[in-house]
Amino acid sequence: MLRAEQRESTNTSAMLSIFAGQPLYAPLLPLLEHLPDTGEPPDLNTLNDLAAARGIVTGSGAPLRFVVPHGSGLSYEERTWWLGEVETRPGNWHDCFNALVWLTFPQSKAVLNLRHHHALAGQRRDGQTSSGRGPLRDALTQFDECGVVLASPDIELWQGICAHRWQEVFWTQRARVEQHLKVFVFGHGSFDLLRHPHIGLCGKATFFHIDDEWLTRPATAQLADVDARVARRLGSELSIHASPRDFQALPLLGIPGAAQENSAPAYYQNTKQFRPLQLVGSN
Fold first, then answer.
1. For residue range 16-59, what is the model confidence (pLDDT) as tens digits?
2. Span 268-281, mean pLDDT?
3. Which pLDDT score, from 0 to 100, does residue 126 have?
4. 147 and 62 fall within a common domain
5. Within-domain flag for 228
6. pLDDT of amino acid 281
7. 224: how many CB neighbours lie within 10 A of its CB?
8. Is the same domain home to 264 and 192?
9. Are strands 202-209 and 182-185 parallel, antiparallel or unpaired?
10. By CB count within 10 A, which of 39, 59, 212, 279 is most buried?
11. Minimal CA–CA distance to 65: which of 91, 83, 78?
Protein backbone atom coordinates (compact mmCIF):
# COMPACT_ATOMS: atom_id res chain seq x y z
CA MET A 1 0.00 0.00 0.00
CA LEU A 2 1.29 3.48 -0.88
CA ARG A 3 2.16 5.77 1.98
CA ALA A 4 0.24 9.09 2.16
CA GLU A 5 3.20 11.05 0.78
CA GLN A 6 3.56 8.62 -2.13
CA ARG A 7 -0.17 8.73 -2.93
CA GLU A 8 -0.10 12.54 -2.91
CA SER A 9 2.92 12.60 -5.22
CA THR A 10 1.27 10.09 -7.54
CA ASN A 11 -1.98 12.11 -7.67
CA THR A 12 -0.05 15.32 -8.33
CA SER A 13 2.04 13.78 -11.08
CA ALA A 14 -1.01 12.23 -12.70
CA MET A 15 -2.96 15.50 -12.65
CA LEU A 16 -0.08 17.57 -14.01
CA SER A 17 0.48 14.92 -16.66
CA ILE A 18 -3.15 15.26 -17.75
CA PHE A 19 -2.82 19.02 -18.06
CA ALA A 20 0.54 18.94 -19.85
CA GLY A 21 -0.53 16.15 -22.19
CA GLN A 22 -3.73 17.85 -23.32
CA PRO A 23 -2.95 20.73 -25.72
CA LEU A 24 -6.32 22.33 -25.03
CA TYR A 25 -5.08 23.23 -21.53
CA ALA A 26 -2.37 25.42 -23.08
CA PRO A 27 -3.92 28.78 -22.02
CA LEU A 28 -3.90 27.72 -18.35
CA LEU A 29 -0.58 25.86 -18.24
CA PRO A 30 1.46 28.87 -17.02
CA LEU A 31 -0.74 28.86 -13.92
CA LEU A 32 -1.35 25.13 -13.56
CA GLU A 33 2.36 24.31 -13.62
CA HIS A 34 3.08 26.64 -10.71
CA LEU A 35 0.18 25.89 -8.40
CA PRO A 36 0.72 23.99 -5.12
CA ASP A 37 1.73 20.36 -5.72
CA THR A 38 -1.21 18.70 -3.98
CA GLY A 39 -3.09 17.20 -6.91
CA GLU A 40 -6.13 19.18 -5.75
CA PRO A 41 -7.49 22.58 -6.78
CA PRO A 42 -5.61 25.49 -5.20
CA ASP A 43 -7.16 27.06 -2.12
CA LEU A 44 -8.88 30.43 -2.17
CA ASN A 45 -5.95 32.22 -0.53
CA THR A 46 -3.67 31.15 -3.37
CA LEU A 47 -6.19 32.24 -6.01
CA ASN A 48 -6.80 35.57 -4.27
CA ASP A 49 -3.07 36.26 -3.99
CA LEU A 50 -2.75 35.70 -7.74
CA ALA A 51 -5.73 37.98 -8.47
CA ALA A 52 -4.40 40.74 -6.21
CA ALA A 53 -0.92 40.53 -7.74
CA ARG A 54 -2.46 41.01 -11.19
CA GLY A 55 -4.79 43.82 -10.09
CA ILE A 56 -7.81 42.05 -11.58
CA VAL A 57 -11.21 43.73 -11.29
CA THR A 58 -14.76 42.69 -12.13
CA GLY A 59 -17.13 44.40 -14.56
CA SER A 60 -17.81 47.25 -12.12
CA GLY A 61 -14.11 47.86 -11.42
CA ALA A 62 -14.33 46.21 -7.99
CA PRO A 63 -11.21 44.28 -6.97
CA LEU A 64 -11.76 40.59 -7.66
CA ARG A 65 -11.97 38.14 -4.75
CA PHE A 66 -12.84 34.45 -4.74
CA VAL A 67 -15.10 33.60 -1.81
CA VAL A 68 -16.90 30.61 -0.36
CA PRO A 69 -20.58 30.63 -1.42
CA HIS A 70 -22.92 31.96 1.24
CA GLY A 71 -26.24 33.76 1.41
CA SER A 72 -25.48 37.31 0.24
CA GLY A 73 -28.99 37.88 -1.12
CA LEU A 74 -27.50 38.65 -4.53
CA SER A 75 -27.39 36.54 -7.66
CA TYR A 76 -24.02 35.17 -8.75
CA GLU A 77 -23.42 37.85 -11.39
CA GLU A 78 -24.74 40.71 -9.26
CA ARG A 79 -22.58 39.68 -6.33
CA THR A 80 -19.59 39.71 -8.66
CA TRP A 81 -20.59 43.15 -9.96
CA TRP A 82 -21.46 44.91 -6.69
CA LEU A 83 -19.06 43.23 -4.27
CA GLY A 84 -16.29 41.92 -6.51
CA GLU A 85 -16.90 38.47 -5.03
CA VAL A 86 -16.85 35.37 -7.23
CA GLU A 87 -18.40 32.39 -5.48
CA THR A 88 -15.89 29.53 -5.55
CA ARG A 89 -16.43 26.19 -3.87
CA PRO A 90 -13.22 24.99 -2.19
CA GLY A 91 -11.84 21.79 -3.67
CA ASN A 92 -14.09 22.04 -6.73
CA TRP A 93 -12.30 21.86 -10.10
CA HIS A 94 -15.20 23.44 -12.02
CA ASP A 95 -15.06 26.55 -9.86
CA CYS A 96 -11.27 26.47 -9.80
CA PHE A 97 -11.15 26.58 -13.60
CA ASN A 98 -13.53 29.55 -13.50
CA ALA A 99 -11.01 31.30 -11.25
CA LEU A 100 -8.10 30.36 -13.51
CA VAL A 101 -9.95 31.76 -16.53
CA TRP A 102 -10.44 35.01 -14.62
CA LEU A 103 -6.67 35.09 -14.05
CA THR A 104 -5.91 34.28 -17.71
CA PHE A 105 -8.59 36.31 -19.53
CA PRO A 106 -9.42 39.11 -17.06
CA GLN A 107 -10.72 41.63 -19.59
CA SER A 108 -13.10 39.15 -21.20
CA LYS A 109 -14.44 37.89 -17.88
CA ALA A 110 -15.01 41.45 -16.67
CA VAL A 111 -16.94 42.27 -19.85
CA LEU A 112 -19.08 39.15 -19.42
CA ASN A 113 -19.91 40.31 -15.91
CA LEU A 114 -20.71 43.83 -17.14
CA ARG A 115 -23.02 42.55 -19.91
CA HIS A 116 -24.84 40.26 -17.47
CA HIS A 117 -25.33 43.17 -15.05
CA HIS A 118 -26.64 45.50 -17.74
CA ALA A 119 -28.98 42.81 -19.08
CA LEU A 120 -30.34 42.15 -15.59
CA ALA A 121 -30.80 45.89 -15.00
CA GLY A 122 -32.65 46.13 -18.31
CA GLN A 123 -34.97 43.28 -17.34
CA ARG A 124 -35.81 45.00 -14.06
CA ARG A 125 -36.32 48.31 -15.83
CA ASP A 126 -38.71 46.68 -18.28
CA GLY A 127 -40.63 45.01 -15.47
CA GLN A 128 -39.52 41.49 -16.39
CA THR A 129 -39.66 39.35 -13.27
CA SER A 130 -39.21 35.91 -14.85
CA SER A 131 -36.03 33.96 -14.15
CA GLY A 132 -35.33 33.45 -17.86
CA ARG A 133 -32.02 34.81 -19.06
CA GLY A 134 -33.06 35.75 -22.57
CA PRO A 135 -31.00 35.03 -25.72
CA LEU A 136 -28.14 37.45 -24.99
CA ARG A 137 -27.52 36.20 -21.47
CA ASP A 138 -27.87 32.62 -22.69
CA ALA A 139 -25.14 33.33 -25.27
CA LEU A 140 -22.89 34.96 -22.67
CA THR A 141 -23.40 32.04 -20.28
CA GLN A 142 -22.68 29.43 -22.94
CA PHE A 143 -19.47 31.15 -23.95
CA ASP A 144 -18.47 31.47 -20.30
CA GLU A 145 -19.02 27.73 -19.82
CA CYS A 146 -17.80 26.28 -23.12
CA GLY A 147 -16.40 29.07 -25.28
CA VAL A 148 -13.47 28.52 -27.64
CA VAL A 149 -11.47 31.08 -29.60
CA LEU A 150 -9.93 30.17 -32.94
CA ALA A 151 -7.34 32.43 -34.56
CA SER A 152 -5.80 31.93 -37.98
CA PRO A 153 -4.59 33.78 -41.06
CA ASP A 154 -6.12 30.91 -43.07
CA ILE A 155 -9.80 31.81 -43.24
CA GLU A 156 -10.55 28.72 -45.36
CA LEU A 157 -10.00 26.55 -42.28
CA TRP A 158 -12.71 28.48 -40.45
CA GLN A 159 -15.02 28.23 -43.45
CA GLY A 160 -14.51 24.45 -43.45
CA ILE A 161 -15.37 24.27 -39.76
CA CYS A 162 -18.51 26.36 -40.28
CA ALA A 163 -19.51 23.97 -43.07
CA HIS A 164 -18.88 20.97 -40.77
CA ARG A 165 -16.28 19.54 -43.15
CA TRP A 166 -14.64 17.90 -40.17
CA GLN A 167 -12.56 15.22 -41.87
CA GLU A 168 -11.37 17.58 -44.57
CA VAL A 169 -10.24 20.21 -42.06
CA PHE A 170 -8.88 18.06 -39.24
CA TRP A 171 -7.47 15.21 -41.32
CA THR A 172 -6.90 16.15 -44.97
CA GLN A 173 -5.78 19.67 -43.99
CA ARG A 174 -4.20 18.54 -40.73
CA ALA A 175 -0.79 20.08 -41.49
CA ARG A 176 -2.43 23.45 -42.22
CA VAL A 177 -4.38 23.25 -38.96
CA GLU A 178 -1.26 22.44 -36.93
CA GLN A 179 0.73 25.27 -38.51
CA HIS A 180 -1.85 28.00 -38.97
CA LEU A 181 -4.74 27.51 -36.51
CA LYS A 182 -4.47 28.46 -32.84
CA VAL A 183 -7.10 27.15 -30.44
CA PHE A 184 -7.78 28.82 -27.09
CA VAL A 185 -10.34 27.15 -24.85
CA PHE A 186 -12.08 29.81 -22.76
CA GLY A 187 -15.00 28.02 -21.11
CA HIS A 188 -14.28 26.85 -17.59
CA GLY A 189 -16.87 24.09 -17.93
CA SER A 190 -14.97 22.72 -20.91
CA PHE A 191 -11.71 22.78 -18.98
CA ASP A 192 -13.38 20.76 -16.24
CA LEU A 193 -14.80 18.20 -18.67
CA LEU A 194 -11.43 17.81 -20.38
CA ARG A 195 -10.10 16.14 -17.22
CA HIS A 196 -12.25 13.13 -18.22
CA PRO A 197 -13.36 13.91 -21.79
CA HIS A 198 -16.32 12.17 -23.35
CA ILE A 199 -17.28 11.56 -26.96
CA GLY A 200 -19.24 14.53 -28.27
CA LEU A 201 -17.56 17.14 -26.05
CA CYS A 202 -18.38 20.33 -27.90
CA GLY A 203 -17.37 23.97 -27.58
CA LYS A 204 -18.95 27.22 -28.80
CA ALA A 205 -16.41 28.86 -31.08
CA THR A 206 -15.71 32.35 -32.32
CA PHE A 207 -13.04 33.22 -34.88
CA PHE A 208 -10.45 35.97 -35.32
CA HIS A 209 -8.66 36.47 -38.62
CA ILE A 210 -5.06 37.33 -37.79
CA ASP A 211 -1.90 37.71 -39.90
CA ASP A 212 1.10 35.39 -40.16
CA GLU A 213 3.21 37.59 -37.87
CA TRP A 214 0.72 37.06 -35.04
CA LEU A 215 1.55 33.35 -35.01
CA THR A 216 5.20 34.12 -34.24
CA ARG A 217 4.41 36.10 -31.08
CA PRO A 218 5.15 34.62 -27.64
CA ALA A 219 2.30 32.67 -26.09
CA THR A 220 1.81 35.32 -23.40
CA ALA A 221 1.39 38.03 -26.04
CA GLN A 222 -1.10 35.88 -27.97
CA LEU A 223 -3.14 35.26 -24.82
CA ALA A 224 -3.23 38.97 -23.97
CA ASP A 225 -4.33 39.84 -27.49
CA VAL A 226 -7.04 37.15 -27.51
CA ASP A 227 -8.30 38.48 -24.17
CA ALA A 228 -8.51 42.03 -25.56
CA ARG A 229 -10.20 40.90 -28.79
CA VAL A 230 -12.80 38.78 -27.00
CA ALA A 231 -13.53 41.63 -24.58
CA ARG A 232 -14.11 44.04 -27.46
CA ARG A 233 -16.31 41.59 -29.34
CA LEU A 234 -18.48 40.58 -26.38
CA GLY A 235 -18.62 44.16 -25.13
CA SER A 236 -20.01 45.60 -28.34
CA GLU A 237 -23.67 46.55 -28.28
CA LEU A 238 -23.68 45.36 -31.90
CA SER A 239 -22.29 41.98 -30.85
CA ILE A 240 -22.27 39.28 -33.50
CA HIS A 241 -23.00 36.83 -30.68
CA ALA A 242 -26.43 37.94 -29.47
CA SER A 243 -27.79 34.40 -29.06
CA PRO A 244 -26.31 30.92 -28.52
CA ARG A 245 -26.85 30.04 -32.21
CA ASP A 246 -24.40 32.76 -33.21
CA PHE A 247 -21.47 30.65 -32.01
CA GLN A 248 -20.05 27.81 -34.11
CA ALA A 249 -20.27 24.32 -32.64
CA LEU A 250 -16.80 22.76 -32.43
CA PRO A 251 -16.12 19.09 -31.48
CA LEU A 252 -13.15 19.65 -29.18
CA LEU A 253 -11.77 16.13 -29.44
CA GLY A 254 -11.41 16.53 -33.20
CA ILE A 255 -8.65 19.10 -32.82
CA PRO A 256 -5.33 17.44 -33.68
CA GLY A 257 -3.70 16.10 -30.54
CA ALA A 258 -6.76 16.59 -28.32
CA ALA A 259 -7.47 12.82 -28.37
CA GLN A 260 -5.08 9.98 -29.15
CA GLU A 261 -7.74 8.36 -31.33
CA ASN A 262 -7.91 11.30 -33.74
CA SER A 263 -4.57 10.31 -35.27
CA ALA A 264 -6.50 8.06 -37.69
CA PRO A 265 -8.91 9.27 -40.40
CA ALA A 266 -11.65 6.84 -39.35
CA TYR A 267 -12.05 8.80 -36.12
CA TYR A 268 -13.74 11.62 -38.01
CA GLN A 269 -16.36 9.33 -39.56
CA ASN A 270 -18.35 9.05 -36.33
CA THR A 271 -21.34 11.26 -37.09
CA LYS A 272 -22.48 11.17 -33.46
CA GLN A 273 -19.50 13.35 -32.70
CA PHE A 274 -18.82 14.98 -36.07
CA ARG A 275 -22.28 15.87 -37.21
CA PRO A 276 -22.94 16.96 -40.77
CA LEU A 277 -24.28 20.44 -41.33
CA GLN A 278 -28.06 20.59 -40.97
CA LEU A 279 -29.46 22.96 -43.56
CA VAL A 280 -32.35 25.18 -42.56
CA GLY A 281 -35.61 23.49 -43.45
CA SER A 282 -34.08 20.03 -43.84
CA ASN A 283 -35.52 17.05 -41.99
1. 777 888 999 999 999 988 777 677 899 999 999 999 999 999 99
2. 85
3. 64
4. no
5. yes
6. 53
7. 16
8. yes
9. unpaired
10. 59
11. 83
Helix (H) or strand (E) holding 37: none
Helix runs in 184-218, H state only: 188-193
Contact 246, 139 (CB under 8 A): yes
Residue 122 lies in a domain: no
Q: What whole-number percentage of the chain has pLDDT above 90?
A: 74
Instruction: Examine the domain organization and report whether 166 and 67 are in the same domain.
Output: no
As a whole number of Å, the CA-based R_g of the chain is: 20
Does residue 245 share a domain with residue 195? yes
The stretches of the chain forming alpha helices (DSSP H) are 4-21, 29-32, 44-54, 76-83, 93-104, 106-125, 135-146, 155-162, 166-167, 174-180, 188-193, 219-235
Least confident of 13-27, 100-114, 169-183: 13-27
Domain around 48: 4-105
Structural domain count, the chain:
2
Helix H or strand E segment including 245: none
Structure pTM?
0.90
**Is there a single domain that holds both residue 150 and residue 264?**
yes
pLDDT above 70 (res 4): no
Among candidate residues 191, 196, 231, 225, the one with its CA nearest the CA of residue 211: 225
Q: Is the pLDDT of residue 128 over 70?
A: no
Rounded CA separation 192/200 (Å): 15
Query: What was the pLDDT predicted at 2?
Result: 33
CB count within 10 Å of CB 279 equals 7
